[in-house]
Design brief:
420 residues, alpha/beta, eleven-stranded parallel β-sheet, three-stranded antiparallel β-sheet
Length: 420
């Protein structure tokens, strides 16, 4: 067994299928970030050997088998070590009954964060977690990519008012719009502390969106994601109008819904003109076209708080419209990232060339780093004329033709900002 200081998520030397990350939240001064182990028993021993010197530790188990014996050790570890406040079980092979046994004893743990993704959690497991929410101090709960249906989501909804939950993700389940309406109903009645809600990929239709819109203006929600549901322009417009009335909304993700018409673009524009707090807006894969870009540009320029904008996978945004869009927003003082990956544009063929597309944009007061993410396109060709026009719009020297070779797919290449 080896204690190794390392960045979270970065494998250390000699890593094996069993691993646990012991970490901290950003403000915690001391941390054991990684423990190389041979089994669950060694996780428990490793934490106990810290002699209480480290606080806010987390146990992370990813893509490993967890038999009954290891579940028992994990239960003992969580019961006897108050320093362990985070549990992450990600895509592990674990029997449903053993997992639900852990849920039944969750009141005996000291958890503040639980990420339970890609596990055999269905409605019965969600019901047990709903009880646990009322008996524990869990603030962050991620149940994405499970098998929770309407009944399980409704049980969790009923538990919201009696818990301290602040962040909830039910993404990629099958809760449907009725359970979404019930969750919104509980948020709307007050008494919840929920700040972040992710209901992406749940086959939610417009009634669910309308229920969400009803409660947004007066709720504590700061982050909302409803990506890849079945919302029509009616639902999208309702949400945008509600966000326009919110005084605390910071992040809104509408990706993968139907909004390729001027009505939605106008609602988004009016939302950005009204809100003073929105920092991140995801409009990826929404069938946006060249007709909507001038309207969006107007909204972007009217929203000084906006920092990140995602427009990727909108395959019908023509070259000239994209060029005009960037020309229109180039003087925005705070925008840091614009993602146009997989749009109707060009395909860089080397990492270096992709990095060169990262450009600074200027304003009267500040210099802003804009990430122009230009990746795979359905045309799969290099358009030197478009690249030249983009460079001119950004005040940069033209890029050379790409060298021959296999394509490289790059999203948000990490290029440091150039000092002003």
């Amino acid at each position: 067994m080896q204690l190794v200081p390392a960045q979270a998520g970065v494998p250390g030397p000699g890593a094996n299928p069993y691993h646990a990350g012991l970490g901290r939240r950003p403000n915690d001064p001391l941390v054991v970030q990684r423990v190389m182990i041979n089994g669950m028993q060694n996780i428990k021993q490793a934490i106990e050997r810290t002699d209480g010197r480290y606080k806010n530790q987390r146990v992370r188990l990813s893509r490993i088998p967890i038999p009954k014996s290891d579940c028992e050790v994990l239960h003992s570890l969580l019961c006897t070590n108050p320093s362990v406040v985070g549990l992450e079980l990600l895509d592990c092979e674990i029997e449903k009954e053993h997992l639900e046994d852990l849920f039944k004893h969750m009141k005996d743990y000291h958890l503040e964060t639980a990420q339970l993704s890609r596990l055999p959690i269905d409605d019965s497991g969600a019901a047990l977690l709903a009880v646990a929410l009322q008996e524990t101090h869990i603030k962050n709960l991620d149940l994405s990519w499970n098998e929770i249906g309407k009944d399980g989501a409704v049980r969790i909804a009923h538990a919201l008012q009696d818990s301290g939950l602040q962040h909830l993700s039910l993404a990629q389940n099958r809760i449907g719009h009725e359970a979404a309406e019930k969750i919104c109903e509980k948020i709307g009645t007050g008494g919840t502390m929920l700040k972040s809600l992710d209901l992406s990929r749940n086959e939610i239709i417009d009634p669910g969106a309308l229920a969400l819109a009803d409660v947004l203006p007066n709720s504590m929600l700061e982050e909302v994601a409803v990506r890849y549901n079945r919302l029509t322009p009616r639902g999208v417009v309702a949400i945008c109008q509600a966000v326009a009335q919110s005084k605390i909304m910071r992040e809104l993700a509408l990706a993968g819904n139907q909004m390729g018409n001027p009505m939605c673009a106008t609602a988004i524009c009016e939302m950005m003109q009204s809100t003073k707090t929105i920092e991140f807006l995801d409009l990826s894969h929404c069938n946006l076209t060249a007709n909507e870009l001038p309207i969006l540009a107007k909204g972007v320029m009217a929203c000084p708080s906006l920092r990140r904008l995602k427009l990727s996978k909108n395959m019908y945004m023509a070259d000239a419209a994209v060029q005009s869009f960037f020309q229109a927003i180039r003087t925005h003082a705070g925008l840091q990232e614009v993602d146009i990956a997989e749009c109707d544009m060009v395909r860089p063929k080397t990492v270096e060339l992709s990095k060169r597309i990262v450009r600074r944009m200027t304003s009267q007061a500040t210099r802003t780093l804009i990430l122009l993410v230009v990746a795979w396109t359905h045309r799969q060709r290099w358009d030197s004329g478009l690249i030249r026009k983009l460079c001119e719009a950004l005040g940069e020297d033209p890029l050379p033709e790409p060298p021959a070779g296999p394509p490289v797919y790059v999203i948000n290449p990490a290029v440091p900002a150039v000092p002003a």
